Amino acid sequence: MSEPSLAALRGAVDLSGLVRQPARPASAAAPATPASGSEGAAGAPGVVVEADDRVFPSLIELSQRVPVVVEFVARGLEPALASIVEGYGGRLVLAVVDADANPQLAQAFQVQQIPAVAAVIGGRPLQLFTGLPSDDEIRQVLDQVLELAAQNGVTGSVPTGAASGDDADADAEPAEEPLPPLHREAFDAISRGDYAGAAAAYRTAIAQDPRDALAVAGLAQASLLERLDGVEARSARDAAAAAPADAPAQFVVADLDLAGGHVDDAFGRLLDLFPTLAGADRDAARTRLLEYFEIVGADDPRTGAARRRLTSLLY
Fold first, then answer.
1. What is the CATH number of the domain that holds 36?
2. What share of the chain in percent tops pLDDT 70?
3. DSSP string covering the chain, please?
């Protein structure tokens, strides 16, 4: 069982399960619900939830404030981590995913066998372990997840429902600050498949505060989702293969690569193409790469390497 590290964060979570979803009215967006098979989950609302590709965008957003542990199980199997995660008093959330019913999520997290456990910290995935280690080993890994989360400023918690009355007021940690209105507007728009609306909300947030790093990263992700909405992957890849010098066709496949977690492929495709471009296509490639850097994260070594190569190509 490998120890989690910042280098293991794979950049953007696979977004392929979040695109091409039909738009739904806001009232139809289903919230994550307590996992019915986890003992004690009813007493800890929000700590253990069942997740599928429809509600996973809300968990990605939640991971900006609280680390989300993702346990992939097979149909009919009960989650094994519920009681352990509940013991962390709301500092972790467990999302239980039926891998058979949600193959896109399983593919996004590169699940090879069941059970498998991963985490999402600040919207970015981290593979943890497969199989069933001992409870002590699991706690060691979860402690490391919390350390990584703290290093990335993810230190919130969710209510556990463990205390009541005056004791709850006395013992509860300070409530996490709600999302700023424009961030909430963007998040709600993404949840109902309105990626253009999300991008517009993030642009307004950036106009109000150009140093809003979360809005900058959110705009890059929303723009990626908007570009890929309705794209058929096989056709797009066939078109790019048939026209290797066609910049727009290559841009689409680079988007697909990044959305699928193939960060090096996305960077490499655009950087290889860059010296052959001029004018508007060259500017578009540079802008697209800068968006990718925001999505993957400045601390990812692949971003650093790609940024250095782009600089050498520019100058």
1. 3.40.30.10
2. 78
3. -PPP-GGG--SS---TTTSSPPP--GGG-PPPEE-TTSTTGGGSTTTEEEE-TTTHHHHHHHTTTS-EEEEEE-TTPPPSSHHHHHTTTTSSEEEEEETTT-HHHHHHTT--SSSEEEEEETTEEEEEEES---HHHHHHHHHHHHHHHHHTT-----------HHHHHHHSPPPPPPPPHHHHHHHHHHHTT-HHHHHHHHHHHHHH-TT-HHHHHHHHHHHHHHHHTT--HHHHHHHHHH-TT-HHHHHHHHHHHHHTT-HHHHHHHHHHHGGG--HHHHHHHHHHHHHHHHHH-TTSHHHHHHHHHHHHHH-
Residue finishing a domain among 116, 146, 171:
171
Q: Give the pLDDT band (50/70/90) at residue 23.
A: very low
When divided into structural domains, the chain yields a total of: 2
pLDDT for 177 equals: 53
171, 194, 226: which is the final residue of a domain?
171
Same domain assignment for residues 130 and 185: no
Report, as an integer, the average pLDDT of 293-302: 85
Tell me the pLDDT tens digit for each residue of 157-207: 887 654 434 444 444 444 445 668 898 888 788 777 888 998 999 999 999
1 domain residue, yes or no: no
- Count of other CB atoms within 10 angstroms of residue 42: 12
Query: Over the stretch 146-163, which tens digit does the pLDDT of each residue have?
Result: 888 877 778 888 876 544
Shared-domain flag, residues 40 and 81: yes
